[in-house]
Amino acid sequence: MNHNTTDIGPIGVFDSGYGGLTILSEIRRRLPQYDYLYLGDNARAPYGMRSFEVVYEFTLQAVKALFDRGCRLVILACNTASAKALRTIQQNDLPLIDPTRRVLGVIRPTVEALGALSVSGNVGVLGTAGTVRSQSYDMEIAKLYPGFTTTSHACPMWVPLVENEEASGPGADYFVEKYIRELFQKNPAIDTVILGCTHYPLLIDKIRKAMPAGVRVVCQGEIVACSLDDYLMRHPEMAARCSTGGTCRYLTTEHTDTFTARAGIFLHEDVNASHVTLA
Length: 279
Ligand code: DGL
Description:
Elements: E1 11-15, H1 20-30, E2 36-40, H2 52-68, E3 73-76, H3 79-84, H4 86-97, E4 102-104, H5 107-114, E5 122-127, H6 129-134, H7 136-144, E6 149-154, H8 158-163, H9 170-186, E7 192-195, H10 204-210, E8 216-218, H11 220-234, H12 236-239, E9 248-252, H13 256-266, E10 273-275
Parallel strand pairs: 1-2, 1-3, 2-9, 3-4, 5-6, 5-7, 7-8, 9-10
The structure holds D-glutamic acid.
The site of D-glutamic acid has 17 residues, from α3.
C-alpha cells in the first residue's frame, strides 16, 4: 500500500463494537476541533473471548480500512485490541504499511495515570476475559511501577448486559456485585480499580455502589483524551496531519440501521453510519 504522506485526514477511532464510543465522546469533548472517523466492527463483536490471532487479524484489517480512508493516526479505543494487537501492529505492520502513520492504544495511558491515583500501590483491573488473560495491564503496571501489586479479574457478563440494555436493570446488580466481591476476595487491600473495558462506564453507578468505601474507580475516557491531547502537543508534525473540520463520521461492519439504533445507548445524539466490509 502506498500512502501519500503529505495530506491530512481524520483521526481514526477503532473499537470492536459500540464501547469505543465512550472513549470517542471524551476525546471529542477535549479535542473538538479535529475530524474523527469511528469504526465499529459490530458484526464480529465482542472480541473479549476471541484468540490473540483473531483479535490481531481483525484489528489489523480495521486499521488498514481507516488508513485507506485517510487517517494518519488511529486510536484503538478497545482494551482487548490494545492488549492483543497493538504491539504487533506497531512493531511489525506499521513499518511495512507506512512508517509515518501511528496507532495508539488505551492501556498505556491508563496505566500512566495510575501513579497519581493509587496510594497503597494495590491496584485492581476489571476487563474482558481476553484482556485479563493477556496480562497486558499487569505487565505495563509492573514496568512503570515495579512496587505495585496488580490484581485482575474478568467480568464476562458486563459487556452483554450493556449491549442488551440491561445496564440499569436488577440483573446487572447481581453481576456487578459478584465480580467486585470476587476481585476483593483476591486482594482486600486494593485502593484503586481500573475499568479496563470500554463498556464498563455505562455501569458506573452500580459499580461505585458495589465498591468498598474509599476505593477509587478509574474510567479511561478522560485519561485517554488527555493523553491524546498531550501526544498531539508533543508531536506537532502529527497534529498538522489531522484535519480540523470538527466532524465525526461512523463506519460499521453491521447493518447501518442496527448501528444507528444501538449507538444511542452510548452517545446521546443521532448518528448516521456507513457500512464497511473488513477483509
Ligand atoms: N471494547 C472491548 C474492550 O474494551 C469490549 C467489548 C468486546 O469484548 O469486544 O475490551
